[in-house]
Amino acid sequence: MDGDTANITTAQRDAWLALDDAALLADCLVDAYRASGPGGQKRNKTSSAVRLRHRPTGLIVISEESRSQHANKRSALRRLRMAIAIQLRPTDAGASNLRMMLQDHIMPDSRLRLSEKNAAFPPVIAAVIDHLSIHGGSVREVADMIGVSTSQVIRLLASEDAVFAQANRIRDQYKLPRLRRS
Q1: What is the CATH number of the domain that holds 73?
Q2: Taking phi first (over 0 means left), then psi (-120 to 50 degrees means alpha), and beta for anything else, what does residue 180 get?
Q3: Per-residue pLDDT averaged across 97-108, rounded?
Q4: The dihedral of CA 7, 58, 125, 129: what is its sign?
Q5: Are the C-beta atoms of 120 and 114 separated by less than 8 Å?
Q6: What's the per-residue H, E or C state across 129-155?
Q7: Residue 80: CA atoms inside 13 Å, Cβ hemisphere, count?
Q8: Do 118 and 142 have their domain in common?
Q9: End of a domain among 25, 58, 87?
Q10: Is residue 178 a part of any domain in this protein?
Q11: Among 36, 80, 94, 175, whose CB has the most other CB atoms within 10 angstroms?
């Protein structure tokens, strides 16, 4: 990361996560290139792969799965949002009111319902990881703060591989056992 990410605030990170696709893309250097590998003649003849470099943070993401540059751009923007949520820990980490952020996603039976496709997913993940880091990797403390069971928090963390890996890196720092998917 080339940007000055050591001094970002929760408000800055949350502002980047709240930007619409066009505004977030405007903060990026965009490279289109020809992807290598399988995919037939079309893949090797068009510059459909996309690399985004977020100028404020230096985060870099790529997408080259589709033969459509537009589809790859959408996918790269989603990956960038998740990279911002997962990798950036603000100087005031924990400033987000996690319970309030999740109030619309906690069902009457205390189950947490939040799809990875929901626009609220990246900011919620960012706040959960902030609190996991602040509370020494304790899933129990985060679950108590939200008002759900630990299995609900683990299920949320396990919904994406990169999120789950970051949660386990945090737990590793505190010498806690790694989380396992059920």
Answers
A1: 3.30.160.20
A2: beta
A3: 89
A4: negative
A5: yes
A6: HHHHHHCCCCHHHHHHHHCCCHHHHHH
A7: 35
A8: yes
A9: 87
A10: no
A11: 80
Q: Is 157 helix (H, G, I), strand (E, B) or coil?
A: helix
Domain region containing 55: 10-87
Structurally, how many domains does the chain consist of?
A: 2
Q: What is the mean pLDDT of residues 164-169?
A: 98
User: Which two structure tokens, joined as six digits, stand for 52?
Assistant: 């985004």
pLDDT band at 148 (very low <50, low <70, confident <90, very high): very high
Q: Is the pTM of this model over 0.85?
A: yes
Contacts of 85 (CB under 8 A, 6+ apart): 13, 17, 122, 123, 125, 126, 129
Assign 106 to helix, strand or coil.
Answer: strand
pLDDT in the model for residue 44: 56
Tell me: pLDDT of 37 over 50. Answer: yes
The mean predicted confidence, pLDDT, of the chain is 91
DSSP-derived letter for residue 112 is B
Tell me which residue has tokens 């790529």: 62
- Among candidate residues 89, 123, 90, the one with its CA nearest the CA of residue 104: 123
Task: Decide if 2 is inside a domain.
Answer: no
Compute the distance between CA of residue 65 and CA of residue 35 in angstroms, rounded to an integer: 9
Q: Report DSSP state, residue 59.
A: -
